[in-house]
Structure formats: C-alpha cells, structure tokens
Amino acid sequence: MPILFSTQWYFNQPYPQKALRSLFYSICKDAGLDLIGRQISNHSGRKTSVQVLKELECSDAVVMSITRHKTQQGLAAYERPKTVMQQQGISGFLDAIKIRQTNDHKDGKF
Is the pTM of the predicted complex or chain greater than 0.85? Predict the structure, then answer.
C-alpha cells in the first residue's frame, strides 16, 4: 500500500546541515537506538536501504528509483563489500552441501 502524504514533507531548498544532524539524532533517540560509540549519519539509512534491496535481488533500476541515485557507479558505493557477498555465497554453498549429505545419508548413498 503506498504512503500518502496530505502535507508537504520535504523542503524546496537544502536543509541546514546542523539542523539535519539534530533531527537525525532526535529520530534515533526516539527510536531507542544506542548511539554511544557509533559513527552513523543520515546516510546510514540510505546505505542500509541499498544493501537490503540488493539482498532482496531488486534490480539496480528499482534501487536507484527508490534511493534517487543518478548513476550505477554512485549506487555501487553503497552496496555490501564483495567480501561480505562472497562470505554469504560460501555460507549458502556449505549449507547446500550439508543438506545434500543429509539427504544422501537418508537415501543410503553413504
């Protein structure tokens, strides 16, 4: 279901950086997030959004339409590092091997 706004929820001009930072921290505090010792910013949400959408196998075009990235190169900077994707791939591969071994053992192939 789309979210409908009955009032203007954006600004026609750049929002002052200090005010944005203050607003962001207020939102995090209200959400109960522990910010002590963490380096997060308003871009943390954008980066997380890109990573989650890519994990859901959304196309670059879909992700860019949501995050408003103008180029695929700009989008790539927000994706998970290849090492993380490789680790996830290897983990999935090993899980598949375990499942197959379990099934082979049940079928008497071992």
Answer: no
